[in-house]
Amino acid sequence: MNSQEPNLETPTPASDAPDTSASAAGADLATQLAQAQAQLAEAQDGHLRAKAEAENVRRRADEEISKARKYAVESFADSLLPVKDSLEAAIAMPDAPLEKVLEGVHATLRQLQQALERNKVLQINPPAGTKFDPHQHQAISMVPAEQDANTVVAVLQKGYLIADRVLRPALVTVAAPK
Fold it and tell me: For the chain: N or C, fewer Cβ within 10 A?
């Protein structure tokens, strides 16, 4: 060879066999990548389904709350309808004798009391001598009495509770200190 002529020979690798370790590692990485992508897609799908389910539960709860507010008085109104019917029946008989009218009024009052009790509207009517409770009673006046101070002497107007909440306190007179 002449030193001025370029060497056009291509270098030959030490081994003419293909590199199987590099191609196997590439295939292994490709498999791992495919598995990771499948897991990611599955996780994303699960996330979207869970998010949709949570939204459905929230929407259903909102609808139930809305219906509960809208129809909360339904049971109470239903229990008052017989009272209204009784009053209308009494008005329809203007010539009824007084005893019959009074008997009907008492029956109607019992119906009303039962309707209130069924709907957890309870009466506050403390007997005389009961210790004054500012949470359930409203003192109208203090009067001298032959009983302990700060006890109920008389009930001027009954009070009412709904469950444990005072709807209207009982108006009472209270024994004055001696």
Answer: N
